[in-house]
Write a structure and sequence with these properties.
There is one protein chain. This protein has 347 residues and is α/β, with parallel strands linked by helices. It is built from 11 helices and 13 strands. The strands form 3 sheets. A 6-stranded parallel β-sheet has the order 2-1-3-4-5-6. It has a 5-stranded parallel β-sheet with strand order 9-8-10-11-12. Strands 7-13 form a two-stranded antiparallel sheet. It has 3 domains: 36 residues, no CATH class; 133 residues; 155 residues, Glycosyl transferase family 10, C-terminal domain (Rossmann fold), CATH 3.40.50.
Length: 347
């Protein structure tokens, strides 16, 4: 610092004590002023953002748009320092912009013309790769991804088990063996093939649009709960793709899930190994059918042992999912860009 050199020595060539004190005060003053001139930096790690964080949802992910106030994250989930908005005119104020994949169809004409400096864009999808089209058009567009995949920047599962010390097991009364709720039935799907072969050996009570037996929202769980087992068959098989068919229709309803989806080891990353039955556990569907039909009550109760330690938490409100960005933000890689979104999602 050249400006400090004359202050270190008096005109007589000896250290000037008064000058040294004055220099010290001057340097200290400048050091303190830096916090006011540039408040985003401190003596330690640089802060990632100054509150509040503004998140703009470009289009709401579901058809039903709930009431969304700017302080909804604080009001509903006690998450502070974060504001949520769906008002596109506030794009220039947004730190994060959220784009559900459904809003990206058919192309870029519905997106902002350009990304503002320092702004991060988030790609959101709860669908599997098999049901997600036109991803190749979005290379080098999004900074972060928000999906059911555990390796997402923002992980949003369909549900999870949370600790619960109730130490009680609640098994609803049973009047049937197996049930299945299915709306989109396609013969080319793996689950259609498995059901067709399994139904040769046991009867399955089918509900939903595919069988012209739709269930009202309030009677869904009460109807399913009367069955001992539920076919939690996913519409496609991909890593971590474990949907409400397991969390809501099976575990929350109080029935044992018979799952068709990713390998057993993947399911066990989410739920205890003794809480479900995997189709792949058996050499044939006839063996599976025999296992279900001949199970005694003692063995059946063992599938509910998880209830002594856990309860089911469903993620059904998109406001809670979007607010998850607030808590994840300080740990996210700033400026990251996905060069090939399709390759990542299909990996």
């Amino acid at each position: 610092m050249p400006w400090a050199l004359p202050l270190r020595w008096s005109p007589w060539g000896r250290p000037g004590v008064k000058a040294l004190v004055t220099a010290g005060v001057f340097v200290t003053t400048l050091w303190n002023m830096r916090f006011f001139l540039n408040p985003s930096k401190g003596s330690g790690e640089e802060l990632k953002h100054r509150e509040p964080l503004v998140i703009l949802v470009w289009e709401w992910p579901s058809k039903q748009v709930p009431s969304v106030s700017r302080d909804v994250c604080r009001e509903l989930y006690s998450i502070t320092g974060c504001q949520l908005t769906t008002e596109r005119q506030l794009l220039h104020q947004a730190d994060v912009v959220v784009f559900p994949h459904s809003s990206l169809q058919p192309g870029r004409d519905k997106l902002p013309k350009e990304k503002l400096p320092g702004q991060n864009w988030v790609w959101v999808s709860l669908e599997s790769p098999s049901n997600t089209r036109a991803l190749a058009a979005w290379n080098k567009t999004f900074n972060w991804v928000m999906t059911y995949r555990q390796d997402s920047d923002i992980f949003i599962p369909y549900g999870k088990l949370v600790p619960n010390r109730s130490a009680t097991v609640n098994i609803p009364a049973k009047t049937s063996l197996v049930s299945w709720v299915i709306s989109n039935y396609h013969r080319t799907q793996k689950r259609a093939e498995v059901y067709k072969n399994l139904s040769r050996y046991l009867h399955v009570n089918i509900y939903g649009k595919a069988n012209n037996k739709p269930l009202c929202k309030d009677c869904l769980l009460s109807t399913i709960s009367k069955s001992k087992f539920y076919l939690a068959f996913e519409n496609s098989i991909h890593r971590d793709y474990i949907t409400e068919k397991l969390w809501r229709n099976s575990l929350l309803a109080g029935t044992v899930p018979v799952v068709l989806g990713p390998p057993r080891a993947n399911y066990e990353q989410f739920v205890p190994a003794d809480s479900f039955i995997h189709v792949n556990d058996f050499g044939s569907l006839e063996e599976l059918a025999t296992f279900l039909k001949t199970m005694n009550s003692s063995r059946y109760r063992q599938f509910f042992a998880w209830q002594r330690r856990f309860s089911v938490k469903l993620y059904a409100d998109w406001r809670e999912r979007i607010c998850a960005i607030c808590t994840a933000y300080p740990h996210l890689h700033q400026g990251r860009l996905y060069p090939d979104l399709k390759s990542w999602f299909n990996s």
